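S1.2 Input.
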Amino acid sequence: MISTFAGDEINRLITLFLKKRLPAKLYFRTTPYAVRISGFPVKEACLKVSDTLGEITRIPMEQLAEELPPVPDTMWKFTSLLPPEMKQEMAVRRYYHLEELCAFLNG
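S1.3 Output.
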């Protein structure tokens, strides 16, 4: 378990990035206060998860943004009218709150 007290949005992002880097057989559950990970041998879990979080903190925000799934055109009223780059930038800032995650992990 990773106790964060960072809220649902940040914990969902942490989960998204961990899922891409940890074995697929793991089960993740987020709450406003923590990310729970099941399926790891106990001794291996702490070290592997902390190493992976450290790896994520060293990745530039722009590169992390490329890993985020695109938002649907129905996300905001005029999303379908936006150029793809602007839509992705809005998603990174207003939907995913990636800047907040980076500040949290590096703070």
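S1.4 Remarks. The chain has a mean pLDDT of 87.
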